[in-house]
Amino acid sequence: MKLAEQRGMATVYEPAEDSRLLATAAIDRIDGGRVLEVGVGSGYVADRIAAETPADVVGCDINPEACRRTRSAGIEAVRSDLTHAFLADSFDAVVFNPPYLPTPPEEEWDDPLEYALSGGEDGRRVIRPFLSDLGRVLRPSGRAYLLVSTLTDVDAVVELADEAGLGAEAVDEASFPFERLVVLEITHANR
């Protein structure tokens, strides 16, 4: 974290248009139960879900500073790489604003904020393992809300969900000058 602080950069992803879109889409569709926000960052999405729904919310992040910050806002947080720290069938809903910006390897840096921004060369480096384990932690009737960008290729993300035995459909979106952000609702395919 010292490198980011020395460069005058944040060490936790701060809420932006993508965070607000994801929070609103999730709040409109979550009516309670146990909810996990993966990559909790500043805690903004988890805090809004906790404040605006009857859900019991927990966050997780690979960045220890993000976990500390989320806990200080009164939301339980677990340090975890994606969903690996959680038991099977643990959540009624999972929300995730992954790092989705396509980033060539030569433009990446070794920094905690890197985990929140870089999606690898195709923007799907973190989305792949998330989708491959999501079905394990999501209860049979559960739903996940995943924010993706047209820069990440929404159709390719839907295909990854399908390969993981999950169904995905767009439930909200917003357009910006260089991209369109889309919230996918993901369920078990047999639902």
UniProtKB/TrEMBL annotation:
Keyword set, alphabetical order: Methyltransferase, S-adenosyl-L-methionine, Transferase
EC number(s) stated in the UniProt entry for this protein: 2.1.1.-
Biological-process GO terms, alphabetical: methylation
PROSITE patterns for the chain: N6_MTASE
CDD domains registered for this protein in UniProt: AdoMet_MTases (cd02440)
GO terms under cellular component: eRF1 methyltransferase complex
Domain Methyltransferase: 35-97
Listed SUPFAM superfamilies: S-adenosyl-L-methionine-dependent methyltransferases
GO molecular function terms attached to this record: nucleic acid binding; protein methyltransferase activity; S-adenosylmethionine-dependent methyltransferase activity
Family assignment from sequence similarity: Belongs to the eukaryotic/archaeal PrmC-related family.
Entry-linked PANTHER family: METHYLTRANSFERASE N6AMT1 (PTHR45875)
Protein name listed in UniProt: Probable S-adenosylmethionine-dependent methyltransferase PrmC
Native source species: Natronomonas moolapensis (strain DSM 18674 / CECT 7526 / JCM 14361 / 8.8.11)
Gene: prmC
